Amino acid sequence: MDLLVFLTAAAHLVYTPFTKVEESFNLQAMHDILYLRNNFTQYDHHDYPGVVPRTFIGPLVVSMISAPFVLLFETLSINKFWAQYVVRLVLAGVISVAWCNLRQAVTKIYGVEVRLWFTAITISQFHFMFYMTRPLPNIFALPIVLFAIAYWLRDQHKPFIICSGISILVFRSELALFLGLLLLVSLLQRKFSIDGLLKIALPAGVCILAATVLVDSFFWRRLLWPEGEVLWYNTVLNKSSNWGTSPFLWYFYSALPRAMGSSLVLVPIGLTLEPRIRPLALSALLFVLMYSILPHKELRFIIYVFPVLNIAAACGCQRIWMNSAKSNWHSFLALACGAHLLLNVVMTIFLLVISGTNYPGGAALSRLHRLENGSPNVSVHISNLAAQSGVSRFMEINDEWTYSKDESMNYTQADLELYTHLLVEAKNKQNTEIWASLQNDFDTLEFVDCFNSIGIQYNSLLPVRVKTKPCIGILKKKAQPLKEKSKIKEKKIKTKAPAVEKVTALPTVEHIPKIKEEPKIKPTLQADLDDDDGIVATVEEMSLELETNIEPEAEAEAEAVETPTKEINFHELRTLALGQSTKKSRAATKLKIRKIIEQHYRAKGKQIENDSAEQTQKTPGSPGGRPGLRQSVKSIIKQEKIKEMIEQIATMDLTRICDLEKTSTKDCLKQVIDKIDDSEGLKTK
């Protein structure tokens, strides 16, 4: 049972291994302590100090526990991203120990049955388990607060005061409200005197304050009490509201229901049936009410009260379960207490799936490592969005690569020359010009999706669907500019004149324009073509190769045949509809659409003007066999109906037409073709 909480937190970590910007300071600090060690000038916080300074004491403690594992990884040449798992698991382990200590105090006071319910309720909820591995200031304070609550329940006042001092002076000053209320309850109950309090609190406070000032002044290279500056910034100056504000009762109608799940209903029952839990639980609720005065609110700010309210809910469940044999009504209530755990688990799974889509930056860099595995001398720029949504120094796993988070990046030509790869925000209204300039020098390898919204679907077993959208683009610098390619092709034409003469000697020469009548390749490639022109230009380019050399013609023909016959997928069509594809990929996708349209018409027994399939079936030596390829170019130009159909499909959202979970993309396109035909038939009538 003691391992259940830790293992559940570890499962959340495995599913969501990346971190966000709020966790960056502590995570980067642990990385620097473990890997840079005494190279203090290279620590990340000197370049990215954040809005307010934070203490190094928490990262130091976790790093000391994690150090043996990191040394083992270095010996075995295991990349350091696994060390990120280690430090977060160590943090979860420390919290698990503190939680188990609290559970022992609960067992002693309320009994074994309450302990079992307390454990079951805790592991069935999402937020407490999820945050146990998150290196946030609140989470570093959490184990100390849990120890303090356990000591308070046992009436061990000296360790309670010391733990309270550490959590308040080092990590989170707002805990003075919560722990101060518990201290006030003890004073009102006359469990100890004010004189006794001062004898413990004053020397402990001085020592704790001196420790944090000494340690943090060393790392920050100036005289500093980090939590003092945070208190001044958030409370006195009230500048935390710059990061967003929420209504006064937001914690009660939004944060607590999400964090507690269906267990929240059982809290008032526990308070009613178990008087001994009231001082602790009411102090927690009063803390939330008082803390609501600050306009900037986040769920993690009140994470300390979740275990307290879970104890109250566990007391309510135990009382109801104990009376289950009294009547059918009591049996039903007992069954509801058990069923609410299943409801919590369903909510947890749903929220965990959503949280997995919130770290596109980490997913993008991880994907780049797989795409470019073994590539040396890679220089990647990480955009602001990517840096805030998962990227950390633990992910800089390749010593031959250069990783940059330069915030002054303006994507000018001079800036882009420094990088071989980019992680940039997906195309939107604000960065259209940037993407237009990037596509001249970079190819888009992939897009990484992130959370967009939650949708309702009525034709599926699961009524709710998590919708995503492209967030981070992975770009790679083009190996060779188009201008150089065109020069190479011109050179080929000039140096292979005999091959041209050989081709023009064929019986079908009248169907093939002479080289001098063709436009030069360079202007053709440099022209700003629309999408269908891109398709035509690709095939024309292949025809020119045919005229200059028979062997290159055969290779180009094989490549052109292979490309459109690859199975089309929904991602290609969505990228095309959103306008996020390059000219080359747009041309390839539209060529695939054309192939499907032609195949569909042939299957229905319809004739296609200058059908390329019929012409390619002719032997190379027969009349018309050689110009078949050239005629296919003309047919692409002349088939206006097919061209218009391609343009319509290129802007469609197929999810509104077909159920892509049950229908393949190709079959869906066939349905679209039939619908377009039907609509045109109605217009002609």
Write up this protein.
The chain crosses the membrane at residues 56-73, 85-102, 136-153, 159-188, 200-220, 248-267, 279-295, 301-321, 333-354. One of its GO terms (cellular component) is endoplasmic reticulum membrane. It is a multi-pass membrane protein. This protein is mainly α and 685 residues long. The chain has three domains: 2-355, no CATH class; 360-477; 482-684, no CATH class. 63% of the residues lie in helices and 6% in strands. The chain contains 32 helices and five strands. It has helices at 2-15, 24-36, 44-47, 57-75, 81-110, 112-124, 127-131, 137-153, 157-171, 175-188, 194-220, 226-236, 250-260, 266-273, 278-291, 305-322, 328-355, 360-371, 384-388, 413-416, 432-441, 482-495, 497-504, 521-526, 531-548, 550-565, 570-578, 583-603, 612-616, 628-638, 640-649, 665-684, and strands spanning 379-382, 402-404, 421-425, 442-456, 464-477. Strands 2-1-3-5-4 form a five-stranded mixed β-sheet. Helix 2 crosses helix 4 and helix 28 (583-603) packs across helix 32 (665-684). The longest helix has 30 residues, at 81-110. The radius of gyration is 33 Å and the shape is globular. The termini are far apart. Mean pLDDT is 83; it is low at 491-565 and 618-638.
